Amino acid sequence: MVAGLALAAADPAIAQAPENTAAILDATLNGEPLGRLVVEISPTGDVLIAVTDFQTLEITGLPPGAGRISGDQISLRALAPDVTFEVNQEIFVLAIRVRPDLLGSSAVNLRPKSSPAPLVRSNNAYLNYFATLGLDDSFGFRSLSAPWEVGANIGELHGESAFTYSLTPTESQFVRNLTTFTWDSPSAIRRTRAGDVAVATGRLGGAASLGGIAVNSEFSLQPDLLRVPTFEVGSLIETASEVELYVNGSLISTQRVPPGQLQFLNLQLPSGTSDVVIVIRDDAGREEIIRDVFYFSSRLLRSGIHEYSYAAGFRRENLGQTSFDYGPAMAGGFHRYGLSSAVTVGARFEIGNGIVSGGPSLATTLGRLGEIETGFAYSGGNGRSGYGGFFDYRWLRGGFSVRASFDGNTDTYANLSRRAISGDRLRGSVGAGYSSRALGSFSVDAGWLKRDGTEWLSTLTGR
Fold first, then answer.
1. Average pLDDT of the residues in 359-380
2. 154 close to 140: Cβ distance less than 8 angstroms
3. Is the distance from CB of 446 to CB of 421 less than 8 angstroms?
4. Are 315 and 327 in contact (CB under 8 A)?
5. Which entry of 4, 177, 194, 352 is 20 to 30 Å from 145 by CA?
6. pTM above 0.85, yes or no
7. Which CATH number fits domain 18-99: 3.10.20.410, 3.40.50.150, 3.50.50.60, 3.40.830.10?
8. Which has the higher per-residue pLDDT, 309 or 17?
């Protein structure tokens, strides 16, 4: 028995392994104080942290169970290279450094803070009037014109009607102009009108005044709504730092942020190309500069936003001359949708006057190279069919601008405003310009126009 004990003491493989040392250390995470942690330091220099304490570090992105060596401890050495550490036993400090993309994120919302006045509805009525008296050279009566309008608000309903009374020595006339009833739905960003309403479907479409009903999006009902695209920029922050955001040289935001991921949200930019710069300056004075370039077009809608207008009714004839003169039934409308921050799609249609007209449209940015908007239209009816289209390009940067526009149609193309065009038509223009506060603005444009059976007409202008 004694011999067995002596053999065990002499055999290193059988001898008891050295034990870990418990310690209380002041911990930092990427330079930020964490407070005191109770850890165990192994003879090989590894640091073991209780799982519950490790979870307070809010490190994300590590595989489940990473570094765990027992049921309730995690080895920092086993997390390398994502996590590194250094122990200074002289001052009892544990410095932990983690890849910033594995830490929590900070978000700075740059959306303007506003407090729009609450929508107050009250029951009321009003009368507006104006009169013009015309006299001849002898101060005798020549004419009297008296336009006036009446309106009322009752709950959610607003109604108004305009009239004109005119008098001359030979005749008098009383004419009803436009009568409209309006319902607003702020939560749906929708306005509904009944009575005399207007229909207009865009660049390739026509326009008309109808007696009927119209429904359209109305962004003024939600002043805080962001209807155009905004941008997000960000960076990884190694240690606690001061971060400055610049757009075209102007300071937009200054933030003190902890280590981790930083995102600036809802950054609104001016039309055209913008230089965005992020300056990161840590407590040691080290500076990192991140540059990016974005292009913004006001023709685009924010992703998920709808813009629309639909109307149907009977065409108002001889507006301003008769009170109740309505013609054939008509309908028309357009709808645009923000497919993404860089693409907006749309479509329009018109029915009436014996024709059907409509087609798609597209607006998009070309990265840093500018923006385009294009559309195509087809019309048919009355035994004739026609086509039309347009293409626009624009690029803006600082005070410089470049633009090009082309549109055309066949002589049989028609819409609500016209049954057909007199001859094929092609038109184009290109131009460039520069403007600044110090020098003013300069531009040069060249244009071409051709109608069926005629020569090309060219123009060149500068200002």
1. 95
2. no
3. no
4. yes
5. 194
6. no
7. 3.10.20.410
8. 309
